[in-house]
C-alpha cells in the first residue's frame, strides 16, 4: 500500500475520532433535554414552547453524525478489503455485521430514533438566519457569567456547523472601537420572535423567568415577567435581576420581540 493510501486512512481515522467526540457532546445535550421534559412535562403544552423543536434538532444532528461515521467506516473497510488478499466473502460478511453492530450500539447507547425533519431542513433554517439579529452567548464556556448580546448573523458554515456573527456595537475594550466578530455553534444562538410570525410566538406568563434585552442597550439579562401581554404585539413588563433602585426593582417595558426563553443553566 502506498504512502498516500496510508495518509488517507489516517485522516479518515482522525475524522472518526472527531465524529465520536461530537456525538458524545450531542448526547449530553439530549440527556439534559430529556431530564427537563421529565421534570416539567407541562411546559411543552404552552404556546410557543421550543423544547420539542430543540430536541428534534438534536436528534437530527445525532442522526447525521451517526450516518457520517458509518460512511467513513465503510470507506475504510473498502480500502482494507482492497489490500487484504483472499477471503473476500468473509470480509464482506464482517463488514455487514460490523455495520449492524454499529447501528445496535448507537441505538442502545444513545436511544436515538430516526426522526425527521431532514438535515436539509435544519441547514436551511440556519442559513435563513443570515442578516437577522439574534441573541448570542459570546462568553467563554469556563467564564463566571454568561454574556448574551444582540448580534447580526453574517454567515452559516454548513461544514463546521458554526455561525459567523457580528456584534455591531463597538467594543469599549477593542482597539479603535472596532466591531467584534465571533464564530459560534447553534447552541449559543437564540432567534428573536418575529413580528410576522405572531401565531407561534411563545407566551411568558407572570412569574416566568426570561432572557430579555435591557432597555437602551444591546445586552440581554435575566428578568422576571411582572405583567403578561394583553395582545400579542404588546410589550412585556419585566423586573431585571440586580437592577435594584432605592431598595426595589423598577418595572421596565420591553418589546415582546426582544424577550426569549431563559436558557438552561444560565449564569448571571
TrEMBL record:
Residues 6-36 form a coiled coil. Residues 94-112 have a biased composition (Basic and acidic residues). Signal peptide: none annotated. One of its GO terms (biological process) is chromatin organization. One of its GO terms (cellular component) is nucleus. Keywords: Chromatin regulator, Coiled coil, Nucleus, Transcription, Transcription regulation. Residues 87-117 are annotated as: Disordered. Its main location: nucleus. It comes from the Eukaryota. It is found in: Nucleus. PANTHER family: SAGA-ASSOCIATED FACTOR 29. This is SAGA-associated factor 29 homolog A isoform X1.
Amino acid at each position: 500500500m502506498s504512502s498516500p493510501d496510508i495518509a488517507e486512512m489516517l485522516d479518515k481515522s482522525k475524522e472518526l475520532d472527531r465524529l465520536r467526540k461530537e456525538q458524545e457532546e450531542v448526547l449530553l445535550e439530549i440527556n439534559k433535554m430529556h431530564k427537563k421534559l421529565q421534570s416539567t412535562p407541562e411546559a411543552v403544552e404552552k404556546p410557543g414552547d421550543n423544547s420539542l423543536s430543540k430536541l428534534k434538532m438534536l436528534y437530527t444532528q445525532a442522526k447525521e453524525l451517526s450516518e457520517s461515521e458509518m460512511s467513513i467506516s465503510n470507506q475504510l473497510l473498502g480500502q482494507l478489503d482492497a489490500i487484504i488478499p483472499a477471503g473476500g466473502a468473509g470480509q464482506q460478511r464482517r463488514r455487514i455485521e460490523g455495520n449492524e453492530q454499529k447501528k445496535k450500539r448507537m441505538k442502545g447507547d444513545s436511544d436515538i430514533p430516526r426522526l425527521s425533519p431532514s438535515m436539509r431542513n435544519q441547514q436551511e433554517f440556519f442559513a435563513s438566519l443570515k442578516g437577522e439579529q439574534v441573541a448570542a452567548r459570546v462568553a467563554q464556556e469556563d467564564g463566571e457569567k454568561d454574556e448574551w448580546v444582540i448580534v447580526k448573523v453574517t454567515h452559516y458554515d454548513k461544514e463546521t456547523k458554526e455561525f459567523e456573527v457580528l456584534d455591531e456595537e463597538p467594543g469599549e475594550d477593542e482597539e479603535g472601537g472596532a466591531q467584534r466578530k465571533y464564530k459560534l455553534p447553534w447552541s449559543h444562538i437564540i432567534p428573536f420572535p418575529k413580528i410576522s410570525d405572531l401565531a407561534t410566538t411563545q407566551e411568558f406568563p407572570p412569574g416566568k423567568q426570561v432572557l430579555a434585552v435591557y432597555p437602551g442597550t444591546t445586552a440581554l439579562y435575566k428578568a422576571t415577567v411582572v405583567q403578561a401581554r394583553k395582545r400579542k404585539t404588546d410589550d412585556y413588563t419585566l423586573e431585571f435581576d440586580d437592577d435594584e433602585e432605592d431598595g426595589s426593582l423598577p418595572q421596565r417595558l420591553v418589546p415582546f420581540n426582544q424577550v426569549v426563553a431563559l436558557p438552561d443553566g444560565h449564569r448571571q
